[in-house]
Amino acid sequence: MGLDMPSSIRSLLLLTNPSSRRATEVRQQLEASISGLDASIQVTWKDVFQAAEHDSEVDRAVIVGGDGTINLGLSWLNQAGIRAPVALIPAGTGNNLARGLGLPLEASEAIKVAFCTLTTRHVDAIGFSCDGARTGMMLQVAATGMPAYVASRFDRLRHLPLLSYPIRWIGDSFYRLLALQAIATNKNRNFKWNLNLDGEVLEVCGAALFFGNEGTIGGGFTPCPRASIDDGLLDVCLLPTLSFRKTLQLFKQVSNGTHLEERDDIFYRQCRVVHLKQAPCPFLVDGDIRGNPARIELECLPGIVELVLPEITRSGQRNQAVAGSEPS
């Protein structure tokens, strides 16, 4: 597959996750795709676990991986001080962020968008720290409570040799099965949190607490349906602890993103800065567990990331502005 890149792109920085089997497969396809590029174009490969150091100028950064790898890649670029447009090539289990942004999930199409599209969009990111240590940035959703425990189990199971392939192909449905199992076995317990939302201090309790820059999370759930990735705000959604039957009803409503319209027991706020205190428990960020912190800080960073995205027409179809053509 030949790539007709814009002439303005003379240096590429490609970030990938060597521990991800799917990302490694997509990297092989990507290497074949860029093999025919002009020899004068500088191509540098880095993995997201390397030290965030890069001295050369970058015209476009490309992150290859799933939601967790994209999170690590954005943090890597931020630490390295790189402010180039960022393209995403989804290569994970759920690829929820790519779905939410309207990016193609098929590798060859995603590669075309990443290298040939001129259209970019400035979006917010959420800087976060755990127990006082600055940890990174997220683009999508963080959670604590039951969803983090479910995600922690999902992560353990998907690394077991006998289950890695089935889980990879089942994808989001397996996460949903684990969530239903947690509900059926009364793992949907009541958690307590101390929240500070832009200076307003609240003591709250419930089954799940979400922080959304974008509305969706793994398993096809939409806990923060009012979240917009470029509104300069962080959405906070607290789900109550309910009986088994009522939790199943809430499960369906969150899947459809209709819980705010259909219920009056949902706590939902929009803010810019969050300080959270909790008994140490798993903290889920963009698909990955980030330890068991007792203190979490999150801050919306408006427009800090410039993403390479296909232009969306009014009819909802992708309309790529590619090299040699004018953006519509």
Give a description of the structure.
- With 328 residues, this protein is α+β, with helices and mostly antiparallel strands.
- The protein folds into two domains: 120 residues, Rossmann fold, CATH 3.40.50; 175 residues, Sandwich (Tumour Suppressor Smad4).
- It contains nine helices and 18 strands.
- The strands form four sheets. A six-stranded antiparallel β-sheet has the order 6-5-16-13-8-9, covered by helices on one side. A six-stranded antiparallel β-sheet has the order 12-11-10-7-14-15. A four-stranded parallel β-sheet has the order 2-1-3-4, sandwiched between helices.
- Strand 14 and strand 15 form a beta hairpin.
- The longest helix is centred in the N-terminal third of the chain and has 14 residues.
- The C terminus is likely disordered.
Number of helices: 9
| Radius of gyration from the alpha-carbon trace, in angstroms | 20 Å
Query: Strand count, sense and closure of the main sheet?
Result: 6 strands, antiparallel
**What portion of residues belong to β-strands?**
25-35%
**What's the CATH first level of the largest domain?**
Mainly Beta
